[in-house]
Amino acid sequence: MTQTTNGINGNGHSASTDLLDTPSAYTQKSNKTHTSIDLRSDTVTVPSLEMRQAMAEAIVGDDVYGEDTTTVRLEQRCAELFGKEAGLFVASGTMGNLLAIMAHCQRGEEIIVGRYNHIHRWEQGNYAQLAGISATTLEVKPDGTMDLDDIEQAIRVQGGYIQIYDESSDTEVTSIPVRYFRIPLLLVVFVYEYCNWL
């Protein structure tokens, strides 16, 4: 990442073309060998002066028609990073979670989530309000996973969506007596294959 000065970065490009590379005020140097970025909430992700300048100078357009070059670049970059055919920018993690559920479930269907998962506890039951979907909650183990036998027993009908990991950190939801960890990819694949087998 390069600092922008007078709208020009170290590579000679205008700030408007390098919005994705602009450093942020919420990037904090730690005493360790890595950088910590606090993305818990919009209330802590305050843009830096360089970011504000880049936003003011950004070329904008209608993203529905593919005219917003920054959005298009971000979606393409994410699609490439994750090996997907396309990416979609949404305004919040809550919106992204809801879209993922709605892409997998029809009205009247059910999701299985850990009882402390963010989508169940902190997103105002939007899957029920907006998508007409109910939830079965399961206990979460100390490593952040749900027991596979519990998942199997909770399935009442064929098909459905199972959230087997949560992006929330224990610092965000301090009242929860579970520390969330990244779930091993093998477990994700196993649950995916099991759901396809049903």
TrEMBL record:
Cofactor(s) needed by this chain: pyridoxal 5'-phosphate
GO terms for cellular component: cytosol
Compositionally biased intervals (Polar residues): 1-34
Domain Aromatic amino acid beta-eliminating lyase/threonine aldolase: 38-160
Domain of life assignment: Eukaryota
Keyword Secreted on entry: no
GO biological process: glycine biosynthetic process; L-threonine catabolic process
Pfam families in the record: Beta_elim_lyase (PF01212)
InterPro entries: ArAA_b-elim_lyase/Thr_aldolase, PyrdxlP-dep_Trfase, PyrdxlP-dep_Trfase_major
Coiled-coil zones: none
Keyword terms, alphabetized: Pyridoxal phosphate
MF annotations from Gene Ontology: L-allo-threonine aldolase activity
Residue span of region Disordered: 1-37
Family in the record: Belongs to the threonine aldolase family.
Protein name as catalogued: Aromatic amino acid beta-eliminating lyase/threonine aldolase domain-containing protein
